[in-house]
Amino acid sequence: MNITLSQKVSYNRLKADTLVVPLFKGEKEIAYALPASVKKLVASVIASKEFQCGTLETQVLHTGGNGVSRVCLLGLGEKKECTLDVVQRAYGTAIMRLKKAKAKSVALIVRGDAVQGKTYAEICARAVLGVRMAQYHFVAYKSKSKKEIAHIGRVVLMGDVSDDRATKSAYARAMALADALDFARDLGNTPPNHATPAYIADAVKALAAKIPGTTATIFDKARIVKEKMGGLLGVAQGSQHEPRFIIFDYKGHTCNDKSAPCRPIVLVGKAITFDTGGISLKPGKSMDEMKFDMCGGAAVIATVAAAARLRLPVHVVALVPAAENMPSHTAYKPSDVLTLLDGTTLEVLNTDAEGRVVLADGLLYAKKYQPKAIVDVATLTGAIVVALGDYAAGLFTPDNDCAAAFARIGEETGDRVWRMPLVKEWADTLKSTVADVRQVPTQRIADATIGGLFLQHFVDAKTSWAHLDIASTAWKTEGASYVEPGATGASVRLLVAWLEEISRGE
Ligand code: BES
Ligand code: ZN
Ligand code: ZN
């Protein structure tokens, strides 16, 4: 899709079939220089109360004219309650609506006064992101004749630009972030017979070749054996697809202090390319959704890609253990004991709790970097879906500052997280009678918290660490106001904004 910016709202030379006009509650007419006939049409629809300017409300009107044949009214709700997140969702919603209306080229008016205390550049960038997120459509596996989905080829955002340079750079940031989201969503949506561990590794190699400053290092099975990652090997051993351990590194600054190690931020992402549950087989219902069980891995890869495209002055590394969890005569089974990277022995009790097993090796490998901070991202438990629906991802961290930062950034970006407890007293339930640790307690309690406690076991208490359980947000079955059904790219916006804050020294 071609998205351009225009510094002025001009109707006459508009090359678009549809014009989107944002309106707040209480506004009775359009303040822009539009043809009198259009203004009259809009005023009458508002007067009839058919369109009430509610948040995300849309109404498509036919102008009857040539050129701009449609005007789409877009409700932004109460003006004093409008946030950047509302802007993003609203512009995305308009695009979703106009895809249905088979629009081919759309012009959207962006209002610099939409959000109190925010600049035109910030508002415009969020509109761009909303448009891009709504426009995303996964068609890679549609045959040629079916590829012709509703596609808006051209989009122009028009507004009375106050600072052109700031607007252009905010626009570039939004586009880079949207590219990263598209990448994460593509990987998530790719069917699991195609998106194998080797496929993901190849995709990361291709990214590294394209983005300056990044490197991809791929461990194949032989190397994983050499590294003694017994957790990743154990989970993978039931599948015909061999595992990979993927390292995607971006170094955006030079470390001045040569005597001290350059301590990166390490992101660890779960990439189970398909989770059948293994020998502890999952029920058939909705099992297809387990192709999304690699969305944590996709998110951390996409985050590193975005950091690099934005040239952030940070060193950030994504570690992605990738495997398929299958039942077979070679599969690992309940009561097996696996030996992890650092020699820790792990008693397996449920082969469906495979995410924590591969992540344990990932977190142990992270130690080699002496990281400044570790964040792991995983579709770890069904329990987090029960707790939060698709409202937010579960955030587990003992670090209150980190929790506050993520909660705030999540709210600002619309990539929400909700803090959940790491109940210290329950850590003992993971003691094993035959091995050092067990993977799940014998009594089933609070799966999501137990998952967090298990992961915490493999992180140094001195290292700042957070675990994001994105099973609640990583994909949508129904779609949402501005996201098509399928992978959402959850946690990419959150992590990129967090890295930006770190880059600014906040
Ligand atoms: N990938 C699943 C988690 C999941 C389930 C995400 C449903 C989204 C929807 C994970 O590997 C898993 O199966 N977890 C188990 C853990 C349990 C055995 C402690 C679960 O949630 O049931
Ligand atoms: Zn599982
Ligand atoms: Zn899983």
Measured on Cα atoms, how large is the radius of gyration?
Answer: 24 Å
Strand content: 15-25%
- The tally of helices reads 13
Which percent range fits the helix content? 25-40%
Which ligands appear in the coordinates? ligand BES, zinc ion
What do you see in this structure?
The chain has 506 residues and is an alpha/beta fold. It contains 13 helices and 20 strands. The strands form four sheets. Strands 7, 8, 9, 10, 11, 14, 15, 16 and 18 form a nine-stranded mixed sheet that branches. The protein has a six-stranded mixed sheet with strand order 1-6-5-2-4-3, with helices on both faces. A three-stranded mixed sheet has the order 12-13-17. Helix 2 runs parallel beside helix 3, helix 3 packs parallel to helix 4 and helix 7 packs antiparallel against helix 9. It is elongated and about 80 Å long. Bound molecules: ligand BES and zinc ion (ZN) (2 copies). The site of ligand BES has 16 residues, from helix 9 and helix 10.
Write the layout of secondary structure elements.
Elements: E1 2-6, E2 18-23, H1 36-47, E3 58-62, E4 70-75, H2 84-100, E5 105-109, H3 120-135, E6 154-158, H4 164-189, H5 197-210, E7 214-219, H6 221-226, H7 230-236, E8 244-251, E9 265-269, E10 271-275, H8 295-309, E11 315-325, E12 337-339, E13 345-347, H9 354-366, E14 373-378, H10 382-388, E15 393-396, H11 400-413, E16 417-419, E17 437-438, H12 447-456, E18 464-469, E19 475-476, E20 486-487, H13 492-503
Parallel strand pairs: 1-6, 2-4, 2-5, 5-6, 9-11, 9-14, 10-11, 13-17, 14-18, 15-16
Antiparallel strand pairs: 3-4, 7-8, 8-11, 12-13, 15-18, 19-20
Helix pairs in contact: 2-3, 3-4, 4-8, 7-9, 8-13, 11-13
One zinc ion binds at residues 275, 277, 352, 354.
